[in-house]
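Morning run. Coffee first, then this:
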Amino acid sequence: MTRNTAQMEIQLLKTVLIFITILNTLDALESSVKMDQKTTKWHTQESTTRTVHNLTNLIYQYYLVCGSEYICEKQNYDFIKSHQATSGLELCPRCSCDKDCVQSGTCCPDIMFSFPEPICQDIFIIRNTPFGNDQGHMIVECHDESSHETKEKCYQNFTSAQLMQKPPVTSNKYAFTFRNKHCAECNGVFNYSNWGIGISCETVSDFNFLSTYGDIIDQAIEEHCNVQYEEDDDSSKHRCLSTTHIPISSVTECNVTGTWLTYDNDIANACHSSYHIEDKGFKNVFCLMCNPPLHNTNAITSCNVSGSWEPYDSALLDACTKEEATPTTMPYKNVFCFLCNRNNTSYFRYQDANAIIGKRSTFLSYMFRVRILERALDFYYSILDSTVFSNKDDVHTLSNYVVSFNKTKLLLLHYAMYGTDSYCSAKFPGGFFVNQTCLCDESCLFRHSRPFCCHDFLLNSTTSCLETLISGPTHFSSHIGAISRCNELSGSDVTANRCNSADVNDIFGTLPVTYDNVIYKNLDCFRCNHPTKNLSLVSPSHWEFLIECDSYPHYNYFPTVQAILQQAKRRNCRIQIVPANTHDTVFKMSTIYCNKENIGICNVTGLWSAYDSDIAQACENLDIFLPSHDNFKNVYCYICNSASPSSLDKTKGATCLVAAENQYYGKNITTACAALPEVPGFGLYRNIFCKTCSIANEKIEPFYWIPFIPTASGDRDLPFSFCT
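And here it is:
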């Protein structure tokens, strides 16, 4: 076919399309005058041809759970007396009210369920050469209340010539497509646009002289042409697509939980429908509604039980009191009772923090990650004002706070083992022979490379090892290190007492914070170690809660993050504290110091012959951040699992075997050999100095600790989908 011939064919087809479009447009104009024949609420009336028979009932039940924020046609429902914005609370999934939401599947429920379910329909009138996607997504049934005559025209099987006059139509308001104009009108839609007709032939065909639709069909058959419906805009939007992928972990059935006590056919049908806007692990909000939470407490049925309701709203008060109850919003009667028991002037999602919750479902459990975006300082300060500690004795301390040990003895043992100056201010007999750079402030505690902390600083540090597991099954529990005591504990200082206490259960006292690469047990420990820092200006980053439950915990309608945790504890969910970034080296170093895999108990070997309480406490009881020694938790655990040189041979190793003039370090090392205690690890020699001064011109080789940085793994690293 030449270029001129092809252009001629295209022009001829355009002429035919214009002719057909004019005829169909006249039909559309005729139909548009009927728009006022039906009331705007007609489609909300009950109909058995829809997936949801009683749309008004469904939207009312949805209204009790979600409010009116995501109801597009509010004017169609008399029960909506006022509007309360809830979108910022993420109580229900976001949905759309624009024309194209039909194709994207994101329409709000009152739109998506307002018509019979669309099905796939052939868009070819005549097809000689199959190609492309030849089916359109169309509504082919009528509302029960429509006239018998209109229904017949919607359902009627037409001839090919008649089909050219009865093209599909698409609503101009919401882009639902109907088989023909009668199918649209029998569903209360009178403002629509007709689809056009497309004709494609193997050879150039002239349809301009034809005067009837029948003649066009006859010639199209004779010329082996394809005749099909085409939308002027973008017909691909209405083509049948593959089934929407629903994550295998999503709940797609009702009453999987066994907690749905009152069956509702409309909610069940909506759950089982093709409507898919996932909501917190459920296929759609209606699958969540037919799997409600189980609560043993009475519902809150009135406003301001919390005492925090702002601002007052009489319409909200009426809705809470007069509207029906729904089990989905427990412990509140309905969403309105929830709203009138919170401070609605705050942009915080919860009273104690602005937080978002990420989810990840598996075959066996529901996992949620609570991320604190911003702490509610007013709420925190109110907790401090209401917290009372009568005296120091009332504070339940962590283990290392009540341990008393001889630091001087421990430092002497350490120096006798390593022989280098790795101290802030310690002094030893004989002085120092080898310098080793170290740091003396808390910034060194979580460093992953040299220089590390000086040993005497570590012995004086206020660190401890904390379990990451807050509650739930204990099949696995890791530990992290943090600063967990104030530099100076004051019995009258509530913040200091909260830092020191092991019994503070609110989120501010439970969740670690990180500031300047240092981990603190909680916000109180950060404050009492940095009393000059203003929390309004300085914001340490919060860790996160990881919650794993056997069933969906329904966290939507809790006023605080703390209430979510309490409910999770009651249901024996597993709750852990995790950092925002598990690949962060600060976090990894905190786990290294608290590693429980190395030997951390004295005399496992049976070789330690002389018990020493200070050494035992340094090995077993202290949560201090000491480097490991071989496969032992720290150097003191190595000492209390080894035989002393004197127990091996009391006649050797206690003095230098080489004269002072042949010593690399001179006569002072002789003093260090004799004056410092005996330690294991140097054969029959008393300590590192005795070994060094027994070999001519021997040097002390500094010990350099190289921490093994683990690769984070497990549930903490799983991807979570967060709603923001």
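Residues 279 and 285 are 6 Å apart (CA to CA). Good start to the day.
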